[in-house]
Design goal:
The chain is an alpha+beta fold. It folds into two domains: about 5-80 and about 185-204, Glutaredoxin; about 90-185, Glutathione S-transferase Yfyf (Class Pi), Chain A, domain 2 (Up-down Bundle), CATH 1.20.1050.10. It has nine helices and four strands, in the order βαβαββααααααα. The protein has helices at about 15-25, 40-45, 65-75, 90-100, 100-110, 125-140, 150-165, 175-185, 185-204, and strands at about 5, 30, 55, 60-65. The longest helix is centred in the C-terminal third of the chain and has 18 residues, at about 185-204.
Length: about 200
């Protein structure tokens, strides 16, 4: 079945592309523009939220970056991009992929310009607790779920690297080292090259 990535090079679609490149599966790219085709009836039929990325696989549509990465990992079990179901490593895999949700909540709250909500009202708890927990998980660790690279490492490296780059996340050594290590993977470099080329074309 045909895999199609709906994306924009200035979006989280870059993470989905990295994951696609890790799978080695052939796929088609459909560029969706902010404010125009992204909000069109045709694209809303694929993702009613009118945002990217979205992945279409035959008649199956998957939205949300983490879901796309997990879906793709399960398509290629031989690549070991997800630990076996029922294994202790699978629990860690789900845990750290899901941990990106409170991290995003914290980053969004910080960029709003408003005071951070009280810990009892915030899904992320306190900023210190969240960042210390993440730092402990990443410090002196190459992989988060077992002894091989998985979609959990990809997502965490991508989000942490992104937020450090834009100075929303303090550049603790554990954060920087983990993100830089995995961003040097061949699939990550290929994905970046593709998206940078798309950006260059848009600038012409």
């Amino acid at each position: 079945m045909q895999l199609t990535l709906y994306t924009h090079p200035m979006s989280r679609g870059r993470i989905a592309r990295w994951m696609l490149e890790e799978t080695g599966l052939p796929y088609e790219t459909v560029l969706v523009e902010y404010g125009t085709s992204m909000k069109s009836p045709e694209y809303r039929a694929i993702n009613p939220m009118g945002k990217v990325p979205a992945l279409k696989h035959g008649d199956v549509v998957v939205t949300e970056t983490a879901a796309i990465c997990m879906y793709l990992a399960d398509l290629v079990p031989e690549k070991k991009l997800a630990p076996p179901v029922g294994s202790p490593e699978r629990g860690a895999y789900y845990r750290w992929i899901s941990f990106m949700a409170p991290l995003e909540q914290l980053m969004s709250a910080k960029t709003s310009g408003a005071p951070l909500p009280k810990p009892e009202n915030a899904g992320f708890g306190t900023e210190a607790e969240l960042l210390d927990t993440l730092e402990t998980a990443l410090k002196d660790r190459e992989y988060l779920a077992g002894d091989t690279f998985t979609a959990a490492d990809l997502l965490v490296a991508a989000y942490v690297g992104w937020y450090v780059q834009f100075k929303l996340l303090e550049p603790r050594p554990a954060f920087v080292q983990f993100a830089e290590r995995h961003r040097k993977r061949a699939a990550a470099l290929r994905a970046d090259e593709i998206d940078e080329e798309l950006l260059a074309r848009q600038g012409k």
